[in-house]
Amino acid sequence: MSLSKSLDHYLNSDGPAALVIQEPLMPVEGPEGVLFPATFAGGDGFPGGYNIDGDPNGENICLVDSVGSQANRIEPLFETDPYAELVPQIKIRAGENVISLLEAGHRAGDALVRCSALQEELQKAFRDVLRGNSEPLAKIAPTSIVFGVWDSRDTQAKLPRLVSSTIRAKNVRPLKRSAQFNPATDFVREGLLEEPVDKAARDAYAVRGFIHVPASGTHGGVIANGGVLRTATLSLAALKLLSAGDPDKTLKLRRYILGLSLVAFTAHTSNYLRQGCLLVLNPDAEREFAEVYPDGRRTPCPLTHEAALKYAGAVAKEFGVGESRIVDFDKERAKRDVSGESGGKGKKKGKKSDAEGA
């Protein structure tokens, strides 16, 4: 059996519905170490800060790293060797910056890309998606299919995430921290600066580091009494819905996207999430990598990252990786886009969904 056919059982109707990884994690200091989850702005009744569902000091679940954040950590992998040859390297020149499509927040639906020389080509590719043909988009932005995309400001074409990953902590105990900034000298007492005459002046001194500034009761991280778990899913059921028109092209498309998805899914993500949140595998808890079938059966998945990479290379050659290029951001296109004259549905204000990367 050729390498490109070796994983076709994942694409068959009687094959697994998904692959699932569950990795118990812990802070580098140990299971009882303090970790700092992501913080979020307030709104819609949410006061802001850590996202903790349930009793803040009892049975609860705390979001440590979101689906969008995890995707944004994994996707740039395809800019580096040996992964770069698996996808077209599309870059947008915007002023003095050259930005990879792999780093655009909304992927192929991002304003940066939409208002570039790729505009018409992408519009056509998204319209083809609406007609049931994802091959043109796979030639330009295949990782937009892997991690999900919503062309919310134009054609409204939407593809769900195939690979998703989230890190959550269970039964966390939030902590507070306080600090005190002391300037190198007392600038006012030494006559180096005038006494501040009002709150605005004192605030200005504080911002620039000229006076003592206390910081009390700020977020101090959490202790995860119930452990930390990274859960990742590769939705084979959604992948099997991809089409490229005729059966032969559809099979090559599905194999190609499967290869990219498996590479992303099995890749080692960074242990460092943010200051105070350095997580490693918990050696005392069991890691699961399973094939999950529609009837609920779970069987161990033997696939390694190295095997996934070899498979992805073989199917990428058969599919034909799209052209790599650098295109320019177009200010005139951006102006038309803002005014709703871009030829799509740009006047409709889009909202982010689970199909988009944060």
Structure keywords:
globular, 358 residues, 10 helices, nine-stranded antiparallel sheet, three-stranded antiparallel sheet, alpha+beta, single chain
H/E element order = EEEEEEHEEHHHHEEEEHEEHHEEEEHEH
Discrete helix count: 10
Number of domains: 2
Radius of gyration: 24 Å
The unreliable regions are: 346-358
Tell me what portion of residues adopts beta-strand conformation: 25-35%
Between the first and last Cα atoms, what is the distance in angstroms? 40 Å
Helix content: 25-40%
Secondary structure: number of strands: 19
Averaging pLDDT over every residue, what do you get?
A: 91
The biggest sheet amounts to:
9 strands, antiparallel
Instruction: Name the structural class.
Output: alpha+beta
Dominant shape = globular
